Amino acid sequence: MTSATLLPRLRSDLAAARFSVPGLTGLWGIEADAALQRNQRVPARRALAALATTLGRKEPAATLAGLFLLGDPVSRADLDAALPELGATGAEQLGLVVADGEGGVRPIVDLRPYNFIDAHGAGSWWIVSDLGELVLGHPLGETHVLGIGGASRTLSGLMMPTRAGRALDIGTGCGIQALHASRHAEYVVATDISVRALELAALNAELNDIDNIEFRLGSLFEPVAGERFDHIISNPPFVITPRAEGVPNYEYRDGGMVGDALVEAVVRGAADHLTPGGVAQLLGNWEYPGDTDAFERVEGWLTPVAGPAAPSSTLDAWIIEREVQSPGEYAETWIRDGGTRPGPDFDRLYDAWLNDFDARGVRRVGFGYLLLRRPVDSSAPPTLRRLERMPDALGHNPAGLGAHLAECLTAHDWQAQTDDARLLRTQLTVASDVTEERHYWPGQQDPTVMTLRQGSGFGRAVPLDTALAGLVGACDGDLAVGAIIGALAQLLEADEVALSAELLPKVRDLLVDGFLTVPEPV
């Protein structure tokens, strides 16, 4: 039988077994769930064993969870019962399990449920990837296909849900970003250098009945030469790995280039593969060489270089640095990520990493998110060039950040095209998630500190003075900004022109950050 015949059976069996995120939590409980997040499976095993004893039988979801998440072999009879339409033989034909030599089967892939919420609503899929270190019991192989991790969840949360004709996922891995993009794009092209990754990604698309994704083999933009896209998404292999003998080169995270050159290549290549107004979103690392600020280097990637192969336009950019690590911290993070534990091998790899950073004078490494946009008019200068550091950039509602980014871009464009005279005539409203916080010295009537706080988005906090607090407090959609400033000028006995000059730039910032909104249509 072909996968076209077998996968619908698997899909039906998984649904019937309630092999879902809430279903598994119900089987082994919240504490075992948390332990699995820490790469510890004993609590889950104990919970499943206790459940089987209590019920006097194995639940289908428990059999599947023990097999595919915990890596425990099961009998063919138990798997036939858990997958009645597909059966153990069908699971073997799909490459999910293999005979263990003792009459049972063991997993050769990780298969798990995945839940999410985006602008289109709640959704759930089943995702197949290679077995992790927990089940393997040894460091990962260099061709390992990663499942859903923290970075992939971060990027999917940041993904703007704006409708697009064509989307591109560079370095698709198990295909999770392509699957997310398929919810807002009519057609998705997903690329990877790994044949194995493309096979698993295609399996995931078919398993979840998603048919608008095309998979192509190749590096970076090579498989889409000459093509343009409305939305480019990439969780690229951005890890800065020493190009030295004896250092593992994992396909899922190491791009084979020196330092942060791979992220630079994606940034520079985006301009010639975006449609006018098209957006690219990616994760990345960047180096701090010597006394140079990394943002100086990253900003240089946004400017076309001379020559016939130069990008055709300078990009709009919004770049957020979420974290900065020392070379030692960075090395430890990624050596552990590959499954190497403290010991001689760990020390050898640690030396290789530090030698590589020392040779290039790197003193720190930054991690963050990049949002790039090709201007609609390629001859016009970019209007958006925002590079900021936000250590708690995902501390509030990661699932809604994509929609928030889209709203912020729309607000940025509106205010960039709006002169001060029109802004003064505009009636603004305070966003529904915004609150004002005031602190008083005991016994005093006037506040000593006033802060405007954002409940969603990036959870920003903006300090307020009396004038700005008064303006924001009066933005209820009835009075124009100019009328509010005029009333404040009288109340504060201030010059109205000077007060306007002071407040209007702050109003623009509050619009771009989502604190204030413009009534529809913008």
Question: How does this model look, in words?
Answer:
The chain has helices at 3-16, 21-37, 42-55, 60-68, 76-82, 87-93, 133-136, 150-158, 176-181, 195-207, 261-270, 294-301, 327-337, 344-359, 401-416, 420-424, 466-474, 481-492, 496-512; strands at 74-75, 97-99, 104-107, 110-118, 121-129, 164-170, 185-192, 213-217, 229-234, 274-289, 316-325, 362-373, 385-389, 427-430, 434-439, 449-454, 461-464, 476-480, 516-517. It is of the alpha/beta class and 522 residues long. Among the domains are: 3-114, no CATH class; 414-517, Outer Surface Protein A, domain 3, CATH 3.90.930. The mean pLDDT is 90. Belongs to the eukaryotic/archaeal PrmC-related family. This is Methyltransferase domain-containing protein. InterPro entries: DNA_methylase_N6_adenine_CS, DUF7059, DUF7782, Euk-Arch_PrmC-MTase, SAM-dependent_MTases_sf, Small_mtfrase_dom. Residues 410-516 form the DUF7782 domain.
